[in-house]
Design a protein that fits this description.
Layout lengths: L1 E2 L20 H4 L2 E2 L13 H15 L3 H18 L7 H11 L5 H8 L6 H6 L7 H44 L5 H6 L5
Antiparallel strand pairs: 1-2
Helix pairs in contact: 2-3, 2-7, 3-7, 5-7
């Protein structure tokens, strides 16, 4: 869904076609991407929903809502992963130790989400209180989630596909089919 106040359709076109001189990215004041742009379904639903809400708030420049959803998603991730520790930093370090393949810099960045606490939101001004910083947190969180939930599943799927190919080769060999090297030896040279 894309919302705009501008008339973007070319009046001379019989089809739904946009005018040539319009910057569509600037014309839309609200835009929800199509379904294939969503967070991967292998990431738990609660996290996906919080990220979608945070991104929607950020698009509308609702920074408090976006930061709250981002913080909530990280805390939810820590709970889902059963990260242990006395405080946020300890829990994040525990999560990092459980996933050593994830780049340390990503954990360092999401570690700063705690800087967006209620005191900073309600009582003080936070110098990083802008959309660019929120985008950094959101994209970093999505990268961490991708590494934790998607990459291991993709590795399992690839390994499973390789095992299946290997099994097919073993079955072919046992049924009397020639090895590829034997087949090439019987090919006439020309």
């Amino acid at each position: 869904m894309h919302l705009t106040f501008q008339k973007l359709q070319d009046p001379n076109s019989h089809y739904t076609q946009f005018k040539n001189d319009v910057d569509l990215d600037q014309a839309f004041f609200y835009s929800v991407p199509t379904s294939f742009f969503v967070v991967d379904s292998r990431i738990p639903r609660a996290l996906r929903e919080l990220i979608t809400e945070a991104e929607g708030c950020a698009k509308m420049n609702y920074l408090t809502g976006a930061s709250a959803c981002t913080r909530k998603a990280i805390y939810e991730l820590l709970a889902l992963q059963k990260a242990e520790g006395a405080n946020y930093d300890d829990k994040l370090k525990d999560l990092q130790s459980k996933h050593p393949a994830v780049d340390d810099e990503l954990f360092e960045i999401i570690g700063h989400v705690k800087d967006m606490t209620s005191d900073h939101v309600h009582e003080q001004s936070w110098i990083a209180w802008d959309n660019k910083h929120l985008q950094l947190f959101l994209e970093t969180l999505k990268a961490v989630l991708h590494e934790i939930y998607v990459v291991p599943e993709e590795k399992k799927e690839r390994a499973s596909a390789v095992r299946a190919l290997r099994e097919q080769l073993g079955k072919a060999k046992n049924s009397g089919a020639q090895e590829p090297s034997e087949q090439s030896a019987n090919v006439p040279k020309g």
